[in-house]
Every structure is written in C-alpha cells, then in structure tokens.
Automatic annotation (TrEMBL):
The keyword Calcium does not apply. It is a single-pass type II membrane protein. Its main location: Golgi. One of its GO terms (molecular function) is glycosyltransferase activity. Residues 1-26 form the signal peptide. Transmembrane segments: none annotated. This is Exostosin GT47 domain-containing protein. Residues 46-285 form the Exostosin GT47 domain. Belongs to the glycosyltransferase 47 family. Keywords: Glycosyltransferase, Golgi apparatus, Signal, Signal-anchor, Transferase, Transmembrane. GO terms for cellular component: Golgi membrane. It is found in: Golgi apparatus membrane.
Length: 351
C-alpha cells in the first residue's frame, strides 16, 4: 500500500474516532475546552517574555504580514519584561527571513555575552523564521533548530517543522473580506466546492480537473469571493497554495476541505483547535472523483456541526492591528504559554 494511501486510511480512522468521541462529548472546536479559558486567563496575568534588544529592522511597522504583526504586537504588549529572572521565555528578535548561517552567528554572540542561552541550550527561547530552518552541523543553529520554539508561516517547508515544539502563525489575508458575523443558518448551497484561482499550485492535476467541473466554482477575484463562498458547501485549500482566507471561509460558513497527500502537522493553533471537527482532509490520489466522493460522503448532521464549529473557531484566526481578546495574536501567545516549562540547569562552575 502506498504511503499516501496508508496515511489517508490512518486519517480516516482518526476521523472516525473523532466523530465517535464528539458524539459523546458536547460539540466543541477546542481540544481542551475545560482548561483552555481558565489557562488563558492565567496567561494574561502571569506570562512574561524577555526580549533581547531588537535590531533596527523592527522599527518598521509592516502590518500586512502575520510575522511583523506578531512582533509589533508582542513588543507593545504587557507580556514583555526587561527582567530576565521573571521571564518564562526569551524572545530572539531575529529578522524572520535571515539565512540559517546568520542565525547561528547571532546565537553564538548571545551565548557569549549573556548567560540565558546556556542555561537551557535555547529551550526557553523563541524565534521567528518565515519558512522554518533546516538542520545544519553548526552547534548554534542545531540547538536553535532542535531546542528553541520556532514560529513560522503556514504551511512550512517539509522538514522545517518539529511537531509539538514549533508553531505556525494563523495566516493573514492581505485583502480581507468583509465577512458578516453570523454565517447564514440555512444555507442552500449551489456548489459543492469553491476555490480561488489565485495561488493554486499549478502542478496540481486535481485543480485542473476541477476547473471544468460544474460542481465547483472558481473565484477569480479574491474580493468578490464572498458570495460564491457562501454559495458553496466546501472551500478548497490545496496544501502549498493560497491559504490566507481560511479563517474568513470558516466565518462565512464554508467548511474547509484541505487537499494534501501527507499528514499535516503544522496547522495553525494545532494545540488549541480540534481541526478534524472543523475541516475535511482529503488526498489527491482519487482525483477529482475521489475528492467529490469524500465531500459528498460527509453527512448532513456532521456537515452542519463542522460549519458551526468552524464559525466559532474563526475568531481565533483573525489578526487585529490592535490585538483583541482570543484573537490570532493572543492564541499564538497561548501556544507559547503552553511551552513555557523547561528545565534550567543551575549555573555551576565545575572544577
Ligand atoms: C556558554 O557556553 C559556551 C560554550 O559552552 C561558552 O563558550 C560561553 O562562554 C558560555 N557563555 C557564558 C555567558 O558563560
Ligand atoms: C432551517 O431549516 C430547518 C429544516 O428545514 C428548520 O427546521 C429551521 O427552522 C430552519 N432555521 C432557520 C433559522 O430558518
């Protein structure tokens, strides 16, 4: 059996388990609905991050990219402390697209100058890297890669992401759609699926098949997609293509159908959201026919639940120029808060 078939099979069994579990528990988009909000409140009052002196690049206020919005929000937030002794984590304000070699040099300088890196070999340190960093033999970049929490864009390059340690940022739509607050309750969808023409990976044959399929509508203008989106049951996100509007699709009641041939481990808010209850995951091996079978196979009851949970979860994927409670910035902070426990070696000079 091919690996992708196997992973699809695995995925379907996971979905089955998730479906059974959720039939027992109350419907919730969260992985830990009882602890999430109390923990979040605790984070608001307790969490402290020490930031090394930001380089001059960060005086810019580009707010169309999630990583710059994250950094400016963090630096202006009450989470920042100048007292390293009360800090849970240490933020390395590296420019997010520095090559690995420059990162290694900066880590080397920091570890010589200050004691904090050596205490945990970087495990309580956090850094941004757009596409994630690769393994290298240099000690400094190796510790950064293996120990520190990496925050990058979704999706990451294969091999540049370590599950359970690293985080991806919820995507930020550069041309946001004005999605109404509540999705239409009783939507009679005309189309099975909606796709956006821009940013679809060209090499994807499934995309080329679907372009001529009457069950699918292709939006050409990102700005006028709202009507077509609301008229479709599922919104298609081909892994590796444009995903910046996934939160808006969810808010509009269009259930995400994520097309990928490998298990996805780098979804944003992976520690917070129960993605299998919000989105349908499907491989490309069955072609357009297989994809449509999977989508048609989603029962009405499950579909309505996914739509509701997606709309409920969408607010956590939304970025704001001035951060709002439970928005993308705060949920990324929450994921960092979950990663705050590290063992610090006491500094001791062995003789
Ligand atoms: C941290 O450790 C490295 C190598 O083990 C050492 O060269 C460096 O001086 C140490 N840094 C501090 C601030 O003591
Ligand atoms: C939606 O449709 C169902 C069944 O067709 C109906 O019972 C319900 O009242 C409708 N809800 C709204 C908000 O119109």
């Amino acid at each position: 059996m091919a690996v992708s078939q196997l992973s699809l099979l695995l995925f379907h069994s996971l979905l089955a388990i998730a479906t059974i579990t959720s039939a027992v528990a109350a419907a919730t988009p969260y992985l830990s609905p009882t602890t999430l909000f109390p923990n979040y409140q605790k984070m608001l009052t307790t969490f402290k991050i020490y930031t090394y002196t930001p380089p001059s690049q960060f005086t810019s206020t580009v707010t169309t990219q999630p990583e710059s919005l994250f950094t400016t929000s963090l630096l202006a937030s009450p989470f920042v402390t100048q007292d390293p002794e009360e800090a849970h984590l240490f933020f390395l304000p590296f420019h997010p697209d520095l090559p690995t070699r420059s990162l290694a040099r900066q880590v080397r300088e920091l570890r010589q100058k200050l004691p904090y890196w050596n205490r945990t070999l970087g495990a309580d340190h956090v850094f941004l890297s757009l596409s994630g960093i690769d393994y290298s033999s240099d000690r400094n970049s190796l510790e950064l890669k293996k120990n520190s929490v990496q925050i990058s864009r979704f999706p990451t390059t294969s091999g540049h992401f370590i599950p359970h340690k690293d985080i991806t940022l919820p995507p930020l739509n550069p041309s946001p759609l004005a999605v109404p607050h509540a999705p239409p309750a009783n939507k009679t969808a005309t189309y099975l699926g909606y796709m956006r023409a821009d940013g679809l990976p060209e090499e994807s044959s499934i995309v080329n098949e679907l372009i001529n399929d009457p069950d699918f509508v292709i939006g050409s203008q990102p700005s006028d997609g709202l009507g077509e989106m609301g008229n479709s049951k599922f919104c298609l996100f081909v892994y590796g293509g444009e995903v910046t509007w996934i939160g808006e699709a969810m808010a509009a009641g269009c259930v995400p159908a994520v097309v990928a041939d490998r298990p996805i481990q780098d979804l944003p808010l992976m520690d917070v959201l129960r993605w299998t209850e919000i989105a349908v995951f499907v491989g490309t091996r069955g072609g357009a026919r297989g994809l449509k079978e999977v989508l048609r196979g989603v029962g009405e009851e499950r579909y309505e639940r996914m739509k509701g949970l997606g709309a409920e979860a969408s607010r956590h994927l939304a970025w704001n120029a001035a951060p709002q409670p439970h928005d993308a910035f705060h949920m990324v902070m929450y994921q960092l808060w979950l990663r705050r426990h590290t063992i610090r070696y006491t500094r001791r000079e062995w003789v």
